[in-house]
Design a protein that fits this description.
Blueprint: H1 15-29, H2 69-74, H3 89-98, H4 113-116, E1 144-151, H5 163-174, H6 192-201, E2 203-207, H7 222-225, H8 236-258, E3 264-268, E4 273-277, E5 288-292, H9 296-304, E6 309-310, H10 312-338, H11 353-356, H12 360-365, H13 376-383, H14 385-388, E7 398-401, H15 404-414, E8 431-434, E9 442-445, E10 447-457, E11 460-473, H16 475-488, E12 492-499, H17 519-525, H18 533-540, E13 552-556, E14 559-563
Antiparallel strand pairs: 1-11, 1-12, 2-8, 2-9, 3-4, 3-8, 4-5, 5-7, 6-7, 10-11, 12-13, 13-14
Helix pairs in contact: 5-6, 6-16, 16-18
Main location: nucleus
Keywords: Developmental protein, Nucleus
Biased composition (Low complexity): 41-56, 65-85
Length: 564
C-alpha cells in the first residue's frame, strides 16, 4: 500500500460523492415543512426536486420583511407564492399548462392590423372603416412595399402562369393595351384574359438595374446593402459613368412626363424622395414635383439656383395659427372693452424681435466690448427657427410647379449631395421608378405568391386565401390589381397595405387647385400615357388622404371601405 501522505485526501478525485454529501447536509439543515391544512389538496411530486449544485440561492439570507416560520405554518401553502427562482423547472411548465384557456392573452383592439397579418393563425380583426362604402377609393400616391389580399375565394388563378400568358402580359404592358374584364368570372383559373392582365399589372420600370442589390427603398437601406459588392465606391471613373447614364435616363423620363407620355415617376435618393407628376394629375393643371423630406441646406441650395418653391404644409400650419390667434385676439379685445381699467398698472408687452436685436443698451452700460454680439448668420437662424424645426419631417415637404421643375431637373443632375460619399450607398445613383418604359430603364415585375391558411373566426376555423405582392408597388399597380380582384373574387376581398412612410406625405392636399381646370383637354392628352382610363380618372382626383396612406382596404359588393 502507498504510504499515507500527511494532509493528503483522495476524496477530490470523486466529486459526485462530495456533491451527494453536500446535498445531504443541506437537507438536514433545512427546517421541516409545515403540514398542510385540512381541506387543501396537495399534489404529490412525481420525483424529488434536484437542487442545482452550482446555485447558492438557498444560502442567501432571508429578507427582514419575510414572515416568521410560525406565520408561514398558519398560511395555506400556495405554489404560486413560491419564488420562481427556487421552484423546479417542471413546476413552472406545469403552471403554464394548467392555465385556463379563457385566460390566454388576446390581442387588444388597438393592435395594428399590420402586425396581426404576420400570423394568419390568429383571428383576423376587422378595423374601423368608413360607414358608407364608395364605388372607388381615393388615389394613394405613397409607394407600397407589400400588399396582402385576403378573401374567402382561392387565388389559384394567380399561380403558375404559362409562358404564353406571361409573354402576352408583357406585350399588353408595352403596347398599353386596355383590358376590360366582365363583372363576374365564373372560372378565374381558366380565364386566360385575367391571368394575362394580372401579369400586365405587375410590371414596372427601374434604373439603375443591379440585380444583387435591393434598390428600393433607399432611405435607411444601408443595412441591406452593406457587405454587397459595390465596385464603384472606390472608383471615381466608374461613378462618373454611372451618373452620366443616370442623367440620360432622368432626362428621358422628364421629357416623357412633359409630353404626357409618362404620368409620373419617382426619384429615390438615400436622403429624400421626389415625385414628378404630369399636368392634369392630382388636381393640378401644371407639371408638379414634390420633395420630402427636406432640410434647410437643401432648400437654401434650391433658392440659390433660382428654384421657386413653397412649403405648403408649413404655410397651412401658419395660416391655421393665424386664424386661431385672430380669434383669440378678438376675444381679448372684447374682454378689454368690458374692463377698460384692467391694463392700468399691468405688465408691459413682450419685446419684439426688433427690440431684442437692438444692442444699444449694451453701450449705455459700457459693456459692449465685453459681450459677444450674435453675427448675421445667428440672427438669420433665429428668424428661421420655425422652418428649421421641420427638417427631416413630413411637414418639410417642398412643392415645385411649372417651369421650375426643369430647373429642379438640372439642379438634381448637378447636385453633389444627391449621391452618398461614404457608407454602403457611396457612389450609387438614385433609383428611378416609372410605370412606363424610358431610356435606360429595365423592366421589372413585382413578386406574387398565394398563401392558404386557416384563421380562427369566433369559435371555428375557416379557410383564408391570401395573395401577397412584394416590391415597389406604384399607385397605378394598386388600382389595377383591385380592378382584377373585383370580378375574380366575386367582389369580396380585403387588403392590408404596407406603406413606405417617407412617401406617405405625398397624399397631402398641396395647394388650391384651379377650379377652371379643363377636363376635356386633360382627358385628350393623358390617355396616351399608358394607364387604364379608370386608373387615370382616379389619379386625376385631388389628394384627400392627408399625410398618411391607406393601410386597410375592403371590398364588399360594389363598395370600397378603407382606413388610413
Amino acid at each position: 500500500a502507498a504510504p499515507a501522505v500527511p494532509g493528503y485526501s483522495p476524496g477530490f478525485k470523486k466529486p459526485p460523492a462530495m456533491l451527494r454529501l453536500k446535498r445531504k447536509r443541506l437537507r438536514r439543515s433545512e427546517p421541516a415543512a409545515a403540514s398542510p391544512l385540512c381541506g387543501v389538496a396537495v399534489r404529490p411530486r412525481s420525483a424529488p426536486a434536484r437542487r442545482n449544485p452550482f446555485s447558492s440561492l438557498e444560502n442567501a439570507p432571508r429578507a427582514v420583511s419575510s414572515p416568521q416560520p410560525l406565520q408561514r405554518a398558519q398560511q395555506p401553502p400556495a405554489p404560486a407564492e413560491q419564488s420562481p427562482s427556487s421552484a423546479p423547472f417542471w413546476q413552472l411548465l406545469e403552471r403554464v399548462s394548467e392555465d385556463e384557456p379563457g385566460k390566454r392573452t388576446e390581442p387588444s383592439e388597438r393592435t395594428d392590423v399590420l402586425s396581426l397579418t404576420n400570423d394568419l393563425q390568429q383571428p383576423v380583426p376587422v378595423p374601423e372603416v368608413p360607414s358608407s362604402p364608395r364605388h372607388e377609393f381615393p388615389a394613394d400616391w405613397s409607394i407600397k412595399t407589400r400588399l396582402l389580399f385576403m378573401s374567402s375565394q382561392p387565388f389559384t388563378w394567380a399561380e403558375h402562369l404559362k409562358a404564353q400568358e406571361e409573354a402576352q402580359g408583357f406585350a399588353q404592358h408595352c403596347r398599353a393595351t386596355e383590358t376590360n374584364l366582365p363583372q363576374s368570372i365564373q372560372e378565374p383559373k381558366q380565364s386566360t384574359e385575367l391571368r394575362c392582365a394580372f401579369q400586365q399589372s405587375l410590371v414596372y420600370w427601374l434604373h439603375p438595374s443591379l440585380p444583387w442589390l435591393q434598390l428600393f427603398p433607399r432611405i435607411g437601406a444601408d443595412r441591406k446593402i452593406v457587405g454587397k459588392a459595390t465596385p464603384w465606391s472606390q472608383d471615381e471613373a466608374l461613378q462618373q459613368v454611372l451618373m452620366s447614364d443616370w442623367s440620360v435616363s432622368f432626362t428621358s423620363l422628364y421629357n416623357l412626363l412633359k409630353a404626357k407620355l409618362c404620368p409620373y415617376f419617382y426619384v429615390c435618393t438615400y436622403q429624400f424622395t421626389v415625385l414628378f407628376r404630369a399636368a392634369g394629375l392630382a388636381g393640378s393643371d401644371v407639371l408638379t414635383a414634390v420633395i420630402s423630406p427636406t432640410t434647410r441646406g437643401l432648400r437654401e441650395a434650391m433658392r440659390n439656383e433660382g428654384i421657386e418653391f413653397c412649403l405648403p404644409l408649413v404655410e397651412e400650419s401658419r395660416t391655421r395659427k393665424q386664424k386661431h390667434s385672430e380669434g383669440n385676439l378678438e376675444a381679448e379685445v372684447a374682454h378689454i372693452l368690458e374692463e377698460p381699467n384692467s391694463m392700468e398698472g399691468g405688465e408691459e408687452p413682450a419685446p419684439s424681435d426688433d427690440d431684442e436685436e437692438s444692442f444699444s443698451w449694451l453701450e449705455e452700460m459700457g459693456v459692449q466690448d465685453k459681450v459677444k454680439k450674435p453675427d448675421a448668420i445667428s440672427i438669420k437662424l433665429r428668424k428661421e427657427k420655425h422652418e428649421v424645426q421641420v427638417d427631416h419631417k413630413p411637414e418639410s415637404l417642398a412643392l415645385v410647379k411649372g417651369t421650375n421643375t426643369f430647373t429642379l431637373l438640372n439642379f438634381l443632375i448637378n447636385c453633389k449631395s444627391l449621391v452618398a460619399v461614404a457608407g454602403p450607398q457611396a457612389g450609387l445613383p438614385p433609383t428611378l421608378l416609372s410605370p412606363v418604359a424610358f431610356r435606360g430603364g429595365t423592366m421589372q415585375t413585382l413578386k406574387a405568391r398565394s398563401i392558404n391558411a386557416k384563421a380562427r373566426v369566433q369559435l371555428a376555423y375557416e379557410d383564408i386565401f391570401s395573395l401577397e405582392i412584394v416590391g415597389p408597388i406604384l399607385p397605378h399597380s394598386l388600382h389595377s390589381l383591385t380592378m382584377l380582384l373585383r370580378p375574380a373574387q366575386k367582389g369580396q376581398f380585403s387588403a392590408v397595405l404596407y406603406t413606405h412612410e417617407p412617401t406617405a406625405v405625398f397624399n397631402a392636399a398641396l395647394d388650391d387647385t384651379s377650379p377652371a381646370l379643363n377636363k376635356e383637354t386633360v382627358c385628350k392628352d393623358l390617355p396616351t400615357c399608358g394607364l387604364h382610363p379608370k386608373t387615370l380618372d382616379q389619379l386625376r382626383q385631388c389628394p384627400t388622404l392627408g399625410k398618411s396612406g391607406i393601410r386597410f382596404l375592403e371590398m364588399k359588393g360594389d363598395g370600397y371601405s378603407w382606413r388610413c
